[in-house]
Amino acid sequence: MDTAALRILVTGGTFDKSYDELEGRLLFKASHVPEMLRLGRSRLRVEVETLMLVDSLEMADTHRQRVLSACRGAPEERLIVTHGTDTLELTARVVGAAGLPKTIVLTGAMVPYTFGSSDGLFNLGSALAFAQTLPHGTWVAMNGRCFRWDDVRKNRASGVFEECGG
Amino acid sequence: MDTAALRILVTGGTFDKSYDELEGRLLFKASHVPEMLRLGRSRLRVEVETLMLVDSLEMADTHRQRVLSACRGAPEERLIVTHGTDTLELTARVVGAAGLPKTIVLTGAMVPYTFGSSDGLFNLGSALAFAQTLPHGTWVAMNGRCFRWDDVRKNRASGVFEECGG
Amino acid sequence: MDTAALRILVTGGTFDKSYDELEGRLLFKASHVPEMLRLGRSRLRVEVETLMLVDSLEMADTHRQRVLSACRGAPEERLIVTHGTDTLELTARVVGAAGLPKTIVLTGAMVPYTFGSSDGLFNLGSALAFAQTLPHGTWVAMNGRCFRWDDVRKNRASGVFEECGG
Amino acid sequence: MDTAALRILVTGGTFDKSYDELEGRLLFKASHVPEMLRLGRSRLRVEVETLMLVDSLEMADTHRQRVLSACRGAPEERLIVTHGTDTLELTARVVGAAGLPKTIVLTGAMVPYTFGSSDGLFNLGSALAFAQTLPHGTWVAMNGRCFRWDDVRKNRASGVFEECGG
């Protein structure tokens, strides 16, 4: 398989939260995605672009429009969007409904990368693979699974992503 | 996308090496794959089967035939084989040449999972995604990339997997 | 040197904060001190007693009196108190002013143990050593250094513990 | 307590072993002690001097004489020697028998620092505390405990340091 160029659009979320020693709380400093690619010894040609660093609960529609614009404007056909899990499904719907001729994979993490127990590296690895192999469309990759943008939700009680079902 | 059942066939390799405190050296105890799936909070239905726990430099042709037999006999259509990187390409050729009607992804790690700096979790995440999305055939997934079984080799000088080229 | 019996009194603080995946924030589950002693392969005879699990900013005088009571009532002569760093100096003064005939070492961490980048294991190791070797009195052990209870403060700007000076 | 200047003499051992990705084995690159002091947010004035980077099983008497010379020649009164655990007791005897008017603490680790499960940070924290508080003499600090140089041995069966007893 040819190694397609990929772009990772960073929006923040749990993925990228850091612990602030002086304030004693979680906040955003800079994205950990470049460090995670180094740890994974990634050999893909990847561009990392930080669009914003926000908690997805604080995302308004203007934020989602910026994500959509960045997806539309990116020169690459294969894109990953890192995102907080709380409203990830909403951004997936905004991007997915636009029907861009691209493969766009949204991913996140349940635990910040800076914790030893984070699922972030695992999710990033699978998102990069899904982005290289899936057809055009918008997808959500979490915890080994991949969902269509119009059939995914986060189960608030269990914290697990699942199909909407019905 | 439906969540296909997957089987992970463990053969050992760097992936699974542990540090023995009494002997002061690296050796095999038990596979770390189940723990890695928990850390990745994997929601896939996965069977983990340990075929052997060996350094891939110690693999003889009989070992590779056992891997091939296990691939053939597994009830699942989608398989992952964890393997040492030194002779991973040789096993890929034995399995690939058999032309089984299955998607088989071999993967490994440059650094043992028990090290903080391991690429194992990243590779396992991407292997699981490749195994769900690629067509029948035998593939090698390393460091974000995926190679066909008959066009991959480990560059001994750089330690990087690459196409055979030419 | 004889291995004196030691008691560790847990009060919470940054040391013991965990990340809650469902809520997306830091909170207390159970103390990590037993796990830290296992990681350090501690061979000391140590009793771990959880008095409370609170953020030290939420400690009132009644909390500090409970810490003092526990220090007074403990059968061991050598004690460690794990504590949040924000008001650690206040509890040190309450305990220190009581002048108990014991060696009492308060310690904490700038970053939760569950983060890869925590100073907790280092501080716990040094607190255990200080508690075994220092004379009776109340001490604060942070980041390799040890302070008297009546000559220590946390510098709010730098986050560093230092003498009061003057 | 005043913060005495301290010198850490590095000799290698398990403490400092790194994993070589190309060779697939443990070897020495550079000492991890400076990184460990950063992680512990150590506020001590410490000099780190690498005397050698060897496995303690490969230490000959000339190596131990170099350690003794470095202890004697160091301007600081308080010293730590990081050392492999297999022959740590032998070096302790060479240094201890010299009776230098200094406090010298030998320490090591059962698991390399680069492993997530290392006891190294814990041992370094306690060694720094013991070096600040113990009287002149040569000591061995391991896993929370501290031993006199002439009454310590590594139990080969259990891997644990203990008094010689008898």
Quaternary assembly? homotetramer
**Overall pLDDT metric of chain A:** 94
Structural class of chain A: alpha/beta
Give me the side-by-side strand order of the main sheet of chain A. 4-1-5-6-7-8
Q: Radius of gyration of chain A over alpha carbons? A: 15 Å
| Largest interface in this structure | A-B, 39 and 39 residues
Residue fraction in strands of chain A:
25-35%
The overall strand count of chain A is: 10
Structural commentary:
The structure is a homotetramer of 166-residue chains. Chain A is α/β, with parallel strands linked by helices and 166 residues long. Helix content of chain A is 27%, strand content 29%. Chain A has four helices and ten strands. Chain A has helices spanning 33-39, 61-73, 88-97, 120-133; strands at 6-12, 17-20, 25-28, 46-54, 78-82, 103-107, 137-142, 145-148, 153-154, 161-162. In chain A, the strands form three sheets. Chain A has a six-stranded mixed β-sheet with strand order 4-1-5-6-7-8, with helices on both faces. In chain A, strand 2 (17-20) and strand 3 form a beta hairpin. In chain A, helix 2 (61-73) crosses helix 3. Chain A is globular. The N and C termini of chain A lie far apart (37 Å). The mean pLDDT of chain A is 94.
Feature tags:
166 residues; alpha/beta; six-stranded mixed sheet; 4 helices; 27% helix; 29% strand; globular
Write the layout of secondary structure elements.
Four copies of one chain form a homotetramer.
Chain A lengths: L5 E7 L4 E4 L4 E4 L4 H7 L6 E9 L6 H13 L4 E5 L5 H10 L5 E5 L12 H14 L3 E6 L2 E4 L4 E2 L6 E2 L4
Parallel strand pairs in A: 1-4, 1-5, 5-6, 6-7
Antiparallel strand pairs in A: 2-3, 7-8, 9-10
